[in-house]
Here is the input.
Amino acid sequence: MFLWIKAFHLIAVVTWFAALFYLPRLFVYHAMTDTTDTVGIARFKVMERKLLNGIMTPSMIIAVALGIWMVMLVPDYMSQGWMHAKLTFVVLLIGYHHWCMKIVKTFRNDANHRSHVWYRWFNEAPVIGLFAITILVIVKPF
Ligand code: HEM
Here is the structure.
């Protein structure tokens, strides 16, 4: 039972990260699009909305729910340092996710003022979460 939950936890984590990397990439290209290109802009809005609502948010909810389920089955996880550190990074990632939701709304209202260079840096942030969480759960350094 536990291993089944862990398998689906990882599937949800993978799909969540695919979206966490790709949505900000769409912001880069959206920010580079000329305001006269109305067809291109409309297409980016649809892609951003569908990626966010169809994949990113459901994946986050499933990953977190299954993670909490595993902790409920084995409460001893909560007495381990690596788990506390992991959960800190998870909270930061959820914050990043919400920031992405806000940016999708800004683009939907044609109110973006940030450059594509800003979004390129913004796009790098989840890399830190991926490295940190993967090392924490596999190596369990403390
Ligand atoms: C509230 C959120 C989360 C909770 C409560 C949670 C909890 C857990 C638990 C209890 C395990 C089993 C650990 C073990 O058997 O060693 C696990 C495994 C794992 N989690 Fe999470 N998790 C959460 C979110 C995440 C996120 C966001 C990521 C991705 C970056 C992630 C990546 C992993 C990985 C890679 C494993 C597999 C470790 C192994 O090989 O056993 N988790 N998680």
